[in-house]
Every structure is written in C-alpha cells, then in structure tokens.
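Saturday, quiet lab. Running sequence design on the structure tokens for the scaffold JK sent over.
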C-alpha cells in the first residue's frame, strides 16, 4: 500500500512538473546544427481561453529554407511563398523564394486535447552557432486567439515564439549553402561578425530604467576594403524605430541629431559608435533593457548588405570593454 501511494504521489508530481511544458506553443527539439535538415514539431497543448484551436499559422524565419509541411488528416493545408533574404543553394539549384508561412485550418483541436503540427526544412549554413531563430505561431479559435510571437528571447516573455538554437555545423554538410555574395550573417550575443570587407566588433547596449522610452546601441565598424561604405539604417523588434544619431558640442552645449543620410564608413578606417558620440538610438522601447539580456538588431549597409546581431546589455554605465561587461 505504501509503495502504491508513493508511486501515485510521484506520478502526480511528474504531472505537475510537466504541465507547464504544454502551456506555450513550442518546438519538440530545440537545437539543430547549421546546414542540417531539421524536422520541426510544433506542440499545441491548449486552445484559446478554453476554446478549440481551428487554425494554426506558423511564420518561417529568414535562415530556414525549403520548408515543407506535413499534411494532417482532417485539416486543410495552405502555404504562403515569398522571397528569401538571400538565395539558397539546394543541391546545385539556386532558390530565391520558398515557403514563408504554413497554415493548417478547417478542423478543431479541443482545449483539453494535445496535438502536433509538423514541417521540415534546412537550417541555414550561414547561421552562427549559438544564435537563435524563431517561428512565430498563432492559434486562431474563432473570435479568440493565442499569438506566440515574442522573439526577444526573454525568460519573462508571456507569449514566446517557438525557438530553435543553432549549433555548430557537422562536418561534410548536406550540400546546402546560401550564395556567398548575398549571405547575411547572424551573430550570437556579443560576438564579432564579418560582412564582406566590414568587421563589426564589440557590440553592446546599456541597461535602461523601467519606464525609459529610449536606449542606446554601440559597436565598432572597420572597413578593410578599398571603397567607402555607409551604414544606412537599423531596426530592432524591441524598438518602434532605430535611428543613427550623432552627439556634438555646440559651444558648451552637447547636441544630438539624427544622421538621415547614414553613417559614412571610409575605406581603411574604423568608426566607433559609443556613448557621447555616434550611436544607435533605440526609440519607443517595447520593454526595459535589463542587464544580462541582449538586444537583437539588424544593420543595413549601402554596399555590404545586411547583418543581424545581438547587443548584450551591460550595466547603465557600460563602456563596451569585454562586450559591455565592465
């Protein structure tokens, strides 16, 4: 009797421990090597406020190629295609577009039931080990819905998108690669990245006060090429908009102005974006920047193209030494 009671208690504890796993839409396998074929299994453990799920939409992110969904009995399947951010070499065939959204509809998954929605594709070989790509997922339940679309990576996110961490590529690969001239590197938090002749080093940000509307982004860009380039724009999912700002002294007054024409990057020179000087202004922040977190940013250059990187958030007085840790 004692043994059965202990077993029952243990089973109950296991159920209690496992319950939160189904609270959010998530991936069954959360890691995959760069350049590998990956089978994505989206787990759906509940409906929308008790209502059954009638439609599931999954966005396919940049860096995930040749996505092919698995049909589900009783469900209608639809795909939405679009251009890739860079071409993809699929065993010698260049692909410039592919599936960017998958939609299952026409059936019902009751709130008290569990199911899985499956597709497969290739993890981009250009992705950096340690980086994360997200698959924003929306459950539609008639008039209600659950949107798992937060791609910040924050542990406190209430609606996190299913996330896949990229690991080191396996030797030999699978013959897939993006066209070198149009590759968009994706750097892990705080990592330096090379984009053509440009080296982007020491990226970081500073923690902000709880209700601060703006934050800053800092990094150094070195142009080792023989022609000038220019940083023309930047974006971040954590900010309503990102501008390139310059701070200068006007007599005894420090003034700040946006560089509407972008930031020049002379050939053979390094340009440092730092506090009190040229920097990225993260405006209309959607959440505070907390020390220890990171800020995803996409930079677009006039000639070199686009790069995605993470700015690790240091203390409020971070100066960038050691990626903002001092």
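Result came back. Writing it out in full:
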């Amino acid at each position: 009797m004692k043994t059965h009671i202990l077993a029952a208690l243990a089973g109950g504890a296991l159920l209690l421990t496992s319950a939160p796993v189904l609270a959010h839409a998530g991936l069954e396998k959360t890691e995959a090597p760069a350049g590998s074929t990956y089978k994505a299994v989206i787990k759906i453990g509940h409906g929308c406020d008790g209502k059954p799920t009638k439609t599931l939409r999954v966005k396919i992110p940049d860096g995930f190629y040749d996505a092919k969904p698995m049909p589900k009995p009783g469900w209608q399947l639809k795909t939405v295609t679009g251009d890739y951010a860079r071409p993809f070499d699929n065993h010698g065939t260049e692909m410039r577009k592919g599936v960017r959204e998958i939609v299952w509809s026409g059936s019902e998954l009751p709130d008290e039931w569990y199911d899985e929605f499956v597709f497969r594709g290739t993890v981009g070989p250009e992705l950096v080990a340690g980086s994360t790509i997200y698959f924003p997922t929306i459950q539609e339940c008639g008039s209600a819905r659950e949107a798992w679309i937060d791609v910040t990576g924050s542990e406190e996110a209430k609606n996190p998108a299913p996330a896949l961490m990229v690991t080191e590529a396996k030797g030999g690969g699978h013959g897939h690669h993006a066209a070198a001239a149009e590759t968009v590197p994706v750097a892990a938090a705080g990592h330096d990245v090379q984009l053509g002749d440009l080296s982007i080093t020491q990226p970081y940000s500073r923690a902000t006060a709880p209700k601060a509307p703006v934050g800053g982004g800092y990094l150094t860009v070195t142009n080792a090429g023989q022609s000038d380039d220019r940083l023309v724009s930047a974006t971040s999912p954590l900010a309503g908009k990102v501008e390139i700002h310059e701070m200068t002294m006007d007599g005894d007054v420090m003034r700040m102005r946006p560089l509407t024409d972008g930031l020049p990057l002379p050939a053979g020179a390094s340009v440092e974006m730092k506090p009190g000087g040229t920097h990225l202004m993260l405006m209309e922040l959607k959440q505070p920047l907390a020390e220890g977190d990171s800020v995803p940013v996409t930079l677009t250059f006039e000639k070199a193209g686009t790069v995605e990187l993470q700015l690790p958030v240091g203390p409020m007085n971070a100066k960038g030494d050691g990626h903002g840790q001092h």
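Notes for JK: The CA atoms of residues 88 and 95 lie 5 Å apart. Confidence is low (pLDDT under 50) at residues 1-22, 177-188, 321-326. Ask whether to fix the surface positions before the next round.
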